[in-house]
Structures are given as structure tokens and as C-alpha cells.
Amino acid sequence: MKYYTEDHEWVEIVGDEATVGISEYAADELGDITYVELPEEEDDFIIGDRLGEVESVNSSSDIYSPISGTVSQVNEALTDEPGLINESPEEKGWLCRLINFDSSELDDMILIKSDGYPTYNFANVIDDHLMGITHVVRGNEYLSSAPKYNRIYEAFGWDIPVYVHCPLITDENHKKLSKRSGHSSYEDLLEQGFVTEAIVNFVALLGWSPQDNCEIFSLPELVKAFDYHHISKSPAVFDITKLRWMNGEYIKKMDPDAFYERALPYLKEVLKKDFDLKKIAGMVQTRIEVFPDIPELVDFFEAVPEYDSAMYRHKKMKTTEETSLAVLKEVLPVLEAQEDYTNDPLYASLSAFVKEHGYKNGYVMWPLRTAVSGKQMTPAGATEIMEIIGKEETLKRVHAAIEKLEHE
């Protein structure tokens, strides 16, 4: 069999012997082709990363400048022989293979159903033609249907579109994605709190890799960077963890007002009191990956959840339940005397308390944050939380924390 390259070279393999020549074949009769990589060992060719087609064919064209030898020798020669392959290193060694189908193995197609309506395959070809479709990009599981479609195109005397068959997308268990199997559609992902831009960016990277290994692209940047030559041969795994990370990166870059509008329903889901929701939205914007993360992150503003006193223990802050109880009792008069409960004045008063007692900042702030939130992870620091809930609620929560620590 002969394998044709982009630049109209050919390689013919007979046993373990390979012959390379340059041809002026230029292509209609070749049809759709798949690239293959010339192996280093004396074995069969393997399917490569890319799809393409030769432009036209002239069967009487002369073939000249042959190179013969074993597959390994020809492979080595290809990297050194001028004109046989493209100049850039990443393009070297790529050959294209003509895919043939035996027409005798193709069944007669049913074009019209018993109810008088056309079958999908028949209607699809007609619809694509009437819409002027020139390129069809789809999963490689549909490769086998191409000859059936081509017979319809040929019967009508229409131009056959260029087919590009992409690798499958699978789940983490390497099973093909399927709505029937519970996998998410685009609409499902939107409902799960993913943003359109992140979904498009993520899907574009499934089975395709940019040359510079960049991962975050705007749509115009994707259009500019995308090159089908870098489509992978292997199935791509739909990694939901990576999609969540990428979505978080897009959320961080959102306009604050646009983020607030998207976040508002999730905030209202758990926050019923008269809080500054816009300020809370600003706290969570850089700390979530998807919008449904919001309720669990902010529900403590409404009420302190049940929590274990062991949360007051922190190795880095050098706090224990005992030290935390002592600090909360010491700092309580400062909080009671404080009138301005906005963040900066609160922080200044507490910093003065820390300095006066010779404490480290975290030694005081960790117990305070735990007391007013009841959570180990919060979207903001102690004073920012206290500003949102106000003086009355802050004192109520600190008193409750003291009582909790005294009785446990």
C-alpha cells in the first residue's frame, strides 16, 4: 500500500521494505485520508494525530527521486531529505493513508420510511447540501457512515463535503459520553453553575492541544489558535475536576456586577436576613468554582451551624480550646466598646488589642472567626464577617462561643 504525504510524497511498504518518492499527485480520487506516523521499528504503520486530504490526482504523473530501504532507514531518511517533509520539527514524519471501503459490503439504504417520511441519513445529506455545508466535523465512530452518505451525494451529482473525524470523548472510566448514561449535556452544565465561556474553552481542549500549552482562551483567541493538525488520535477524557477549575478561573475574571446577578439566586437561597448581598458576593467570587458552591459557603451568615470545639485548635496559629476561651473573654470588652463595625475600624481596634497583649494576629483572629462563623473555611476574615452581621449579632455569637467552650 502507498501512503501519501501532505506535500504529495508517497511511501510504499512491502514487507519490511519501504520506498519513498515524490509525486505531483494532486487528488480527487484519493478522497478522505487519515495521517499515520512512520514507526521507528520494523512494524506496521500506526494511526497518527491528524486528518487531511490531498488536493487532486493526476494518475499519469511521474514519480521520481525514490528512496528505498527498511522502514527504519526510510524513517531516518525522511528527517534529513529536503523536500520530503515539512520544515518544522513537529510536522516531521507524518504521512496520510487512503481509507477504502468495499462497496459490496454496503447494504442498500432505506431512504423513505413506511409512513412516507425520509430516514435520517437521507434527510441529513439533503439538508447539508441545501445549507451549503462544505466540511463535516464529527466523532470518529461515524466514520463508517461516510461511504453511505457519499453514495447519496454521488447519486444526486452533488459535491461531497470534507469529513473530519475527531476522537471520542469519554468519562473517567473511558466509557463514551452518553445522555442515556447520565452524562451532562451543555444545558445540564449551565444548570450546574458552569459558564458558557468555560465550557467552550474546556471542550475545545478535548482531543486538541495548542502549541504553546496555554489553557485559558477567549473565543476569539481560540478561533485564532485552533489548528486541526493538532487534533489527537486518542480519546479525550471529560475531566469534571479540570472543568470545575477552569470555570473558577472564568468566574474570578467576571465583571463584579455580572457575577452578582448570577450569584444572587444562590445567595437568596440561604440568606433571608437584611444583609449586604453585593458585599457577600464580592467575598465569594474568587473562592468558588461553580455557582452552586455559594450556599454552603455563606449559610453561616444567617446562623452559626453546629460545630465541634476542636475547630479552635490550630497548629499554625498555636491555639487550643483553652487559649481560645481566654482570648475571647479578653477581647469581648473591646468588641462591646467598639461603635463602628465597618471592617477597617474593627481591624484597627483588634490590631491594637493584639499589640497591647503581645499576641500574634492569628492567635486572636482564628478564635474570633471560628466564634462568629462556626466554620473552618470562610470566604472572608473575622472583621469582614463581623461587618456583615453587625455588632449585635457579633456579640451574641461570641457570648455563645464562650459558653460553648466553658461547657465542653
Poorly predicted residue ranges? 1-98
Can you write the helix and strand succession as a string?
EEEEEEHEHEHEEHHHEHHHHHHHH
Mean pLDDT: 78
What would you call the structural class? alpha+beta
Q: What portion of the residues fall into strands of 2 or more residues? A: 5-15%
How many helices? The count is 14
What gyration radius follows from the Cα positions, in whole Å? 33 Å
Strand order of the largest sheet: 1-2-3-6
**Distance linking N and C termini:** 81 Å
- Counted beta strands: 11
Quick recap:
It is built from 14 helices and eleven strands. The chain is of the alpha+beta class and 408 residues long.
Describe it for me?
This protein is an alpha+beta fold and 408 residues long. It has helices at residues 71-78, 120-130, 146-156, 186-191, 196-204, 219-225, 240-252, 256-270, 277-284, 294-298, 321-337, 343-357, 361-373, 382-406; strands at 2-4, 9-14, 17-23, 33-37, 46-52, 63-70, 94-98, 135-139, 162-166, 169-170, 236-237. The protein contains 14 helices and eleven strands. Residues 1-98 have low confidence and may be disordered.
